[in-house]
């Protein structure tokens, strides 16, 4: 019947929207992904951690939608509940996603320090249809042919493509500046189309009349596919390319650089040397020319019996029941899902990494027979070593929403999913998984036991550090004075290190030999071991903190004028005694603070102004006297008002009065660096503003110590 063949066929087709999830999520961030790294960025295999990596077989599959959300956790208890209790979100532009990516026998080779190549075989399936009217789909996903129903799809388009790839990749180091490292790569691939089918409809609708057993269709529909024949099916070819670059920031490159016996640098290719890595690539540039194929455009404006569609597939139903407006002997070419990929990889420590990746489509979703990816951003923390990597990607995919997965690479085996944890612990609109087996051959990690920069296999003394000039062994010391011959100005005559291995002289001519002279470059007295005592306080100048001013031994030759045990050069108040904790200055006590504020609160201002009344000058004098007694103390001059008037005007007035008092104090000799003016307006009352007395108390100035 029509409802089983045509309506469900079209509804299925328009409900399957291809959204390319990144294949092998998590694995592709791994520095040991080997040949798989070509998929995301062909530059990855240059300066690789692997000499050789052979993929035997691996596969990645993805399914997702924005119509149906399921909880896989229910499947372990009651599988039927997985879909019976699924949450639906019908919209006029729902989608459903699917992707299969199979990597066949493939390999990458490191040819030299700068050059790498790779070859791979790959099978890929893409299926996409855009703008599905999910409001027409019931919970069972079909329509009852015994009842009337109406489907209004409007403009629809979709495509299915299955093809194989044979790819060849070349990657090389483009620049190695030590700290800054750049590599690039290019993949060329030969494409063979296996199967393709696509539709492109305009204003499509289906109106089913159950009583009359009739269906009325409207709109136009373009349908393209392979020619169905034993010899002609799927004979399509094309070419594609991927291009990528990777920049690495290597701030510790000198610590990772070893040398050979000729002093030539050797890169330790067995370890990761970057702190930050930035990658960018464009993938799937190209298309497949579809030979031996057809494309027909049908006029759907017709009313006919539902029985006309019994037992027919979609292509037969179109051919048998609708008029072709146009027919072409060759279908449109299959355009690859060109996309931009960018990522940042942060090496937090030797084994822990954090990767931020984005995939952005460069193709529109409604172009005929054109595949396209869906934009995605992912954040993947991973624990990475040569034989084991564990990763857990978090991603947000446009339409499919939040996804959380996990993956593992253990030697030759790997498996994972970009959505497994989301699927098991909550409603998920996507499912994916990948697994594979490979043969990895890792780069050797160069060893340098004695850390002298010379690799162990050419170091004549691998356990003892030594210079390259001496084959990694330490230099001799002929005269046994502890100074290596290469640094000893008198290698055959013992002498101290301070004199470059030579015997002492009497450099300053004071009669005391340099070896006995504590001050060999300054004439001094024998009683002071050849050192001078300029101020004659019995403390030689080099030990005297105040060599020109006599002082006591207790104070290391410096005077203490105020007798507070803090010498004058360290005393911020050398003429006033004070504790060491306050740098030799007297401390402001609570009583002094209280006295300051008693004076400050009596400062009077002209009504509504910041000008200070003359009768307040005596209070200012008292305040200045107190401030001068504590020369290193800093204070805030705080202005306060009552609540009469607006907040804004009170704030301005309080700030102006605080600054007026500060300016007056500065004019009277108090350092401006010691005073900070702050206005609080009516924010901090000390009495009620409902009484005249309270408002008077609130109109005040405070001077407070900055602790």
UniProtKB/TrEMBL annotation:
Residues 482-561 are annotated as: Disordered. The keyword Membrane applies. Residues 505-514, 539-559 have a biased composition (Basic and acidic residues). Pfam families: DUF5723 (PF18990), OmpA (PF00691), TSP_3 (PF02412). Residues 592-707 form the OmpA-like domain. SUPFAM superfamilies: OmpA-like, TSP type-3 repeat. It is found in: Cell outer membrane. Keywords: Cell outer membrane, Membrane, Signal. The keyword Ion transport does not apply. This is OmpA family protein. It comes from [Muricauda] lutisoli. The lineage of its organism: Bacteria, Pseudomonadati, Bacteroidota, Flavobacteriia, Flavobacteriales.
